[in-house]
Design a protein that fits this description.
- The complex is a heterodimer of chains A (about 350) and B (about 280).
- Chain A is about 70% helix and about 0% strand.
- With about 350 residues, chain A is an all-alpha fold.
- Chain A has 2 domains: about 50 residues; about 240 residues, Orthogonal Bundle (MetI-like fold).
- In chain A, strands 1-2 form a two-stranded antiparallel ribbon.
- In chain A, a hairpin with a 4-residue loop joins strand 1 and strand 2.
- Chain A starts with about 25 loop residues before the first helix and ends with a helix.
- Chain B starts with a helix and ends with a helix.
- The relative contact order of chain B is 0.14.
- In chain B, helix 3 packs parallel to helix 6, helix 4 packs across helix 6 and helix 6 packs across helix 8.
- Chain B is mainly α and about 280 residues long.
- Classes of the chains: A mainly alpha (about 350), B mainly alpha (about 280).
- The interface between A and B is large, with 105 and 118 residues.
Chain lengths: ~350, ~280
């Protein structure tokens, strides 16, 4: 998204219609008035129509997903989200492994991304001089524009071998006594997927956090420095408390991204329909299950179950994003009072 | 050393420690940006050649061939999505900035677009599959384009609104005072003032969807041959990367890296160019 700027806008009066002799007179004026009224009505109607169509689109997505997953909802009921059996051959479907994978991989991503994003925001707003923070900020934001398929492919061919060669054996040797880090160093699994997700959401969280940090009134920070606080003390005791709800909003926004991310996760999570306590084991997520199996689902019930997975994902992200939006909106309102 | 001095040193150390970690976080982000870009560049350039741009894919397992059909497919579907999504998005953005403003309807539209911006793109793929693929009996370029247009729509709406809002109300009032009808003021004065920002936003939205994969998997699907019909399955670079990278052949992996280089280069170039345009505007 382009940044807000305060450009002065030229007034292009040269394009206003020139007055001609035939345009004068009461009849012509009335005609012009009528056509202007008609033009206004048409234009406003079209604008309204497209705005309304956005709301209609949202409702339509819900309705269509609900209709297509009705067969699965009727067949499995609530058991769909509590069962961990996913057996296309026996046509028995339970979404628990997918839901678990989506939630756990996103949680890993947030745990890694939150401190790093806040660190980046501190670096950009409180430490770096302007000629450093500009390029560094842009570079971090460029991470967000790399397509997710590139993350996935790079993760599979470059990052996963590095993980299985160096990082995971280290984790297993030194932290293997914790069940989370037991198992074999495969390079693909829950932890690698969560890590790539973290890199993908860092630019989102850090850019929102940076913008929110910039809204802290300088007066507050200066009074901190005035009583002799160090930079870190000002950040920890003034900037972060002042922006807390905004940071939470930014994190939830990142969470919304992580939950729905498909390609990178599909490449790295291992696509195994099981729930394992170890983060190094292959797992699956809702989006990965959809990406892998959707075009192979020929039975109605199979397809319907996959659509229900999509509906669940849509509902989860809807709730998460709505919360994020409310938190960020509330913060920017408070900021406006100063 | 007295207690106050020790405390001072402790605070100083905590300060330097925290700031060092912040700088390290920024370094972490940049490190991964360059690591990814380096591999895409090196592996992509070693795999890209003239055949890649001019020839159809070789049969599975055979060496050689290119991805000209997927390149054309990506352009076709992205262009079609732009034609569908951009005018609709600009009109809805116009409603928000020129008519709805603080009305209830406008705030609902803003809320819904903000949700749709971050909605999982794979769900959009499932939705379009149920809407356009299943009832009409097959994967098609048009279904892929509709899926991408849905992803593009909320981005364009919010950018258009932001940019139109930058045009000061005094400008609108000046034109209205001359007797120009509202719609003419919008088209000739407000759009004119915001055109640079809107074009930049549209470019970013187009770049973003051209790199999308998930919504195309079940809509435009894939195709190993030329396809000029909008109602047939159509290959795109991103879906081809997915299939080739997951596939067993080394030659496929090479092609996937070449395709990755092409799509990354396009997306990053558009991003960098629009950043420069926006920055030039700010100064």
């Amino acid at each position: 998204m382009p940044e807000k700027t305060d450009e002065k806008v030229r007034m292009p009066l040269r394009d206003m219609p020139e007055k001609r002799a035939s345009d004068s007179g009461p009849v012509a004026a009335a005609r012009r008035y009528a056509s202007a009224r008609a033009g206004d009505a048409v234009f406003k109607g079209a604008a309204w129509f497209f705005a309304a169509s956005v709301i209609a689109l949202m409702l339509l997505i819900f309705a269509v997903l609900l209709k297509e997953s009705w067969l699965s909802i009727k067949t499995f009921g609530l058991g769909f989200i509590t069962s961990s059996t996913w057996d296309p051959v026996a046509l028995e479907f339970g979404a628990l492994p997918s839901i678990y994978g989506t939630l756990v991989s996103s949680a890993i991503a947030i745990i890694i991304a939150l401190p790093i994003s806040v660190g980046i925001a501190i670096f950009l707003t409180e430490m770096a001089p302007k000629r450093v923070s500009g390029p560094v900020g842009s570079a971090i934001e460029l991470l967000a524009s790399i397509p997710s398929i590139i993350y996935g492919m790079w993760g599979l061919f470059v990052f996963a071998p590095v993980l299985s060669e160096y990082v995971e054996p280290f984790l297993i040797d030194h932290l293997g006594f914790i069940p989370l880090f037991s198992g074999a160093p495969l390079g693909i699994g829950m932890l690698p997927a969560g890590f790539i997700l973290a890199i993908m959401i860092i630019p989102f969280i850090s850019s929102v956090t940076r913008d929110i940090f910039r809204m802290v009134p300088p007066m507050l920070k200066e009074s901190g420095y005035g009583v002799g606080a160090t930079k870190w003390e000002v950040i920890r005791k003034i900037v972060i408390p002042y922006t807390r709800s905004g940071i939470i909003g930014a994190v939830i926004l990142g969470l919304g991204r992580a939950l729905g991310e498909t390609m990178a996760v599909t490449f790295l999570i291992g696509n195994a329909q099981n729930i394992s306590i170890s983060l190094l084991d292959p797992a699956t997520s809702i989006s990965a299950t959809l990406a892998n199996e959707f075009t192979e689902a020929f039975e109605d019930l199979y397809l319907s179950s996959l659509v229900e997975l999509g509906l669940i994902l849509f509902l989860i992200t809807f709730v998460v994003l709505a919360i994020a939006k409310l938190l960020i909106a509330r913060f920017s309102y408070q900021g406006g009072k100063f | 050393m007295d207690a106050a001095g020790a405390r001072f040193i402790k605070r100083k150390l905590a300060n330097y420690g925290a700031l060092a970690l912040s700088a390290a976080s920024a370094a972490f982000g940049i490190f991964f940006l360059f690591w990814i870009l380096k591999d895409v560049l090196v592996l992509g350039f070693s795999a890209i050649n003239l055949d890649f741009f001019t020839r159809l894919p070789a049969p599975a397992g055979m060496e050689g061939g290119g991805l000209v059909n997927a390149i054309a497919g990506t352009f076709l579907i992205t262009a079609l999505a732009t034609v569908i999504g951009v005018p609709a998005g600009i009109m809805a953005g116009t409603y928000l900035s020129e008519y709805g403003r603080k009305s209830r309807m406008a705030s609902v539209v803003r809320f819904v677009s903000d949700i749709l911006v971050s909605a999982p793109s794979i769900v959009v793929g499932v939705f379009v599959y149920a809407l356009l693929v299943k009832p009409f009996g097959g994967f098609s370029a048009i279904a892929g384009a509709v899926a991408l247009a849905i992803i593009m729509l909320p981005v364009v709406i919010r950018t258009a609104e932001e940019m139109l809002k930058l045009v000061p109300d005094a400008t609108r009032e000046a034109a209205l005072a001359l007797g120009a009808p509202h719609w003419k003021v919008t088209v000739h004065v407000v759009y004119r003032g915001a055109v640079r920002g809107i074009v930049t936003g549209v470019m970013l939205a187009v770049a973003r969807v051209s790199g999308e994969t998930a919504p195309l998997l079940f809509t435009s699907f894939n195709n190993s041959f030329w396809n000029f019909s909008l109602t047939e399955p159509t290959a795109t670079l991103t879906v081809t990367i997915f299939n080739y990278a997951m596939g067993p052949y080394e030659d496929w992996h090479q092609k996937a890296w070449a395709a990755a280089l092409l799509i990354t280069a396009i997306v990053l170039l558009v991003n960098i160019i629009s950043r420069i345009i926006v920055r030039g505007k700010a100064e």
